[in-house]
Amino acid sequence: MKLASSLDINLIRLAVVLAKHGNFARAAESLHMAQPTLSRSIARLEATLGVPIFDRTRDGVVPTEFGRLVIERGRELLNGSRELFREIALLQGVECGQLKVACGPFPYAISAGRALAGLMKSHPQVQFRLGQHSPKATVEQVLGGAVDLGLADTREWLGDPRLEIEALPQHRAVWVCRAGHPLAGRRDLCLQDALNYPLICGVMPPQVGAMFGDHSAAGQRCAESGQFYPAVTLDCMQLGPALAAASDALFLASPLMATEELRRGELDFLDLHLPWQHTHYGFIHKRARTLSPVTLAFMDLVRGFEQEALGQEQALLSAHFSARPAAVPHGERSKAYLTV
Prior knowledge:
Mean pLDDT: 85
């Protein structure tokens, strides 16, 4: 059997989309094209290859053995073509037109948004896409080539040969509760005390999940991944302060994420400071991938805002704890709360 010497990469793209949807009608709709046009295009690709790549069934289409190979290699070709055009644009000194960043909850709230605002002034011609995701989803987007840069917790990915990682400064995380919470004002708290209440935070890595164990009130540890899913699991940490202020749930986050609520007295810090209460996020990008000038400019801005945030956090914590009245002993505190 003689194979054709050239392939239309657009036909490969159509086949990849069809395999994703498993149905001509849904695939055609996602591609904004007529179903008969898609059907003829797939038939043309099969004729070019000389093999069937999809089995047609009543329920849709299923890749054949040949099709699975085409889809797998096709994805690599499509990713490679995007990288090729991107590299050529960089060599020409032309910015790619977009900066695409996937960001975890903590850096999104602390520095990424401010860095983006700065870039919009200096690079008005560039289109920006800043998405907030879990750390795992962030790394998946980086490895898949969907984004130029990731900014997320790096603990699960250290040593991965596919990735370049640059750690950013560690920020102190604090436990925050509503004013009048049963734990507010106590000085003898331990982790077990906090885990008796619902926890508001992002997904915890296995290193933290192992310490949290099985505390159904606070959340649940995934047996397969080891990650800990808080009772209220957020990718958008900006929602945390309002949720904590309206409930007995505890919010574990940077103090900068609750500055206004703390200032107004709606929230209070818990006096619980454990050695692991620090962020561990950094820049993540594919190894040996050339970073565009606008990506490098974004990274420089993030570094500056990260250092600035460290000083703001320290000032906020020092002001709060220095002005805080003496704590009520545990027993008396419990009695006082019960009489309210």
